[in-house]
Amino acid sequence: MNASLPLPPRPATPTLDRVQIPSDLRNFSAEQLRQLADELRAETIDAVSTTGGHLGASLGVVELTVALHAVFDTPRDRLLWDVGHQAYPHKILTGRRDRIRTLRQPGGLSGFTRRSESEYDPFGAAHSSTSISAGLGMAVAHDLHNQSDRHVVAVIGDGAMSAGMAYEAMNNAGARKSRLLVILNDNDMSIAPPVGAMSAYLSRLMSSRSFLNLRDLASRMATHFPRGIQRTARRAEEYARGILTGGTMFEELGFYYVGPIDGHNLDHLLPVLRNLREAEEAGPILLHVITKKGHGYAPAEASPDKYHGVSKFNVITGEQAKAPPGPPQYTRVFADALIAEAAADDRIVAVTAAMPTGTGLDRFAKCFPDRCFDVGIAEQHAVTFAAGMATEGLRPFCAIYSTFLQRAYDQVVHDVAIQKLPVRFGIDRAGLVGADGATHAGSFDLAYLGCLPGMVLMAPSDELELMHMVATSAAIDDRPSAVRYPRGEGTGVDLPERGTPIAVGRGRIMREGSTVAILSLGTRLADSLRAADELAARGLSTTVADARFAKPFDAAMVEQLARHHSVLVVIEEGSIGGFGAAVLQHLAGRGLLDGGVRVRSMTLPDRFIDHNAPAAQIIEAGLGAKDIVATVMGALGKDEAKATLLVPAR
Ligand SMILES: Cc1ncc(C[n+]2csc(CCOP(=O)(O)OP(=O)(O)O)c2C)c(N)n1
Q1: Is 293 tagged catalytic?
Q2: By CB neighbour count within 10 A (0-12 exposed, 13-18 middle, 19+ buried), where does 167 fall?
Q3: Which among 83, 289, 381, 405 is the best mutation to test ligand 1's pocket, defined by most ligand atoms within 8 Å of the CB?
């Protein structure tokens, strides 16, 4: 960032200063609410400029946030934000303004909605497309509790609306009479431009219906929600309306469709929301609201993709802080390795679920536009779609973050693994992920993939290994395979043009010793080598092995390590039940735990780890070099729980 530019003064916020919680704004005039929205936007920009985070989505819902809290009786009425990444203005208005500059910082506010953070967050989120299901559940609970005066409002983006779960929920809601208001926040953007027929449908819907103007609004709302009108008359009116306007897909699903309306215009939002609140007839309603991602901040409006998630930035110029130049990110190495494979093999195709930039597949798409498929936020479909392509001889690589692949687990098991289809998984963000926190951590893939018969599961210890593993995956054509690699940059090793396949199921010895063995999977290798230096300084000769494969792992190597050392530590950046568990099970089965070697498995702890700096998360998880040393010393009965490092870092 250009340090010479003066930072702008904090914006003056006299109206916002009067709002601690939403009830403070409920008696504001329309003019005051407009002023409040302007100040809320300025406050959001200023706060995110110091913390980084999801800016564009939050700026797009400022007026909607004000209007919803003005009209509905939150927190008694339930307000759900799908994904939760657009909830910063909501946090500011709901008692968290004093902590808004701790957003995503260690110990600070979460970047998403979170039940434990506030009673105004009735449902935690971060993965998309859950709001309608959860909202319907709440609405049904209100029915059963005879609380028909309570409202549930779910705000869901057009990107999130591309996921199957949203349709499952609408299918259920449309057949019920529960009071549920779904607000479709249509900004014609996902992280990247939205894809698919649904997106095209919403555009058509938009263009076929002009924005309702104020007069139309008043008259339409009057006809749509007549008090005391006979049900039959109402049905006739709906029927006529359907014929006149062609109806909408949402109406076919049993929702009462209203819109589209301008989501930045409080003069429209407020009366419509009030009318919907007062609607006497039960049943789900869909309000279609048109917004602009980044609204009100020119740099974010100009590049909605670059301002979806931002690092710290200069408010005046919009310039984002850049990381100092360093080794390439794993994501980029994965993409380049895949491009190199695809250049040599035109059967290779790539699939992303709405994350072309996050997975690096935007680079792949530039080289092979016809062989790259963005399927929208639809991980389940992505996996089965890839499986279908594999049956016809294509070589699909499905690039999905570890945390989002959780959603497609049955597809991985049922559609891929059982049929032994050679779908390749590029699993980015494996392990701890920093500021996005527990919802985005890739903690479980080693456990949930390592138990699948036939799966080949690899974890590179550096970016060169990643290249080799991508090449290995490309060459495995008789079963599924997966490479899991972390967020962030590699180690800076030299990289060839193209990776070379490695022997499946073979690990490698990185350093030979005789007393202690450390078996590392993935990028814990660097700390394992550091720990070995430390142990050597304590007179303990240490072997370090890089497992490379979690499945099938190198059983011969593991047995050797167990037979010829006093202590064997197995370390991975994954949950319990993963690689270490498999190694222990294997050794127990061979009778190698019956005496002799003392085996210790180091995994992520059995709890969720909050957002923090990545290095701090590793320490918190107890997976650093010091922890390895302490674990070894503990196994030898020389308690050194707080091992201090003697050897300077390499
Ligand atoms: C299951 C899942 N897959 C992928 C993501 C990553 N992701 C976060 S926000 C987002 C785009 C959401 O678009 P939209 O719902 O239109 O909201 P907007 O950001 O445009 O307001 C994606 C793909 C996610 N959160 N959850």
Answers
A1: yes
A2: middle
A3: 83
Same-domain pairing of 515 and 476: no
Distance 545 CA to ligand 1 centre (A): 39
Q: What is the pLDDT of residues 525-535, one digit of tens each?
A: 999 999 999 99
Measured over the CA atoms of residue 506, residue 509, residue 510 and residue 515, the dihedral's sign is positive
Q: What is the largest CA-CA distance in the chain?
A: 89
Please tell me the distance from the alpha carbon of residue 518 to that of residue 525, in angstroms, as a whole number. Answer: 9
pLDDT for 508-560, tens place per residue?
999 999 999 999 999 999 999 999 999 999 999 999 999 999 999 999 999 99
| ∠ Cα 613 614 618 (to 5°) | 115
Question: What is the distance in A from the centroid of ligand 1 to the CA of 541?
Answer: 49
From the candidates 39, 341, 379, 572, give the one annotated as an active-site residue.
379
Question: How are beta strands 256-262 and 348-352 bridged, if at all?
Answer: unpaired
What is the CA 432 to chain-centroid distance, rounded? 12
Specify the DSSP element, H or E, that contains 367: helix 361-367
Of 81, 377, 405, 427, the residue with max ligand 1 atoms within 8 A of its CB, to mutate for a pocket test, comes to 377
Number of structural domains in the chain: 3
Q: What is the pLDDT of residue 227?
A: 43
Closest ligand 1 atom to Cα of 187: 20
Answer yes or no: is pLDDT of 388 > 80: yes
Instruction: Quote the CA–CA distance of 401 and 379 in Å, as a whole number.
Output: 10
Are 242 and 118 found together in one domain?
yes
Residues 230 and 165 in one domain: yes
**Residue 573 among the catalytic residues:** no
Tell me, yes or no, whether 247 and 372 share the same domain. Answer: no
Cis omega before residue 460 (within 30°)? no
Task: Check residues 285 and 237 and name the one with the higher pLDDT.
Answer: 285
CATH number of domain containing 568: 3.40.50.920
Q: Where are the alpha helices (DSSP H) in 4-130?
A: 30-51, 55-60, 62-71, 88-91
Amino acid at 206: M
Q: Which of 97, 114, 292, 293 is catalytic?
A: 293
Which residue from 82, 88, 159, 94 is spatially nearest to 125, judged by alpha carbons? 82
Domain that holds residue 391: 330-484
Q: Report the half-sphere exposure of 588 (CA within 13 A, side-chain side).
A: 7
Of all protein residues, whose CA lies closest to atom 23 belonging to ligand 1? 354
Told to judge if 238 belongs to the known catalytic residues of this protein, a careful annotator would answer no
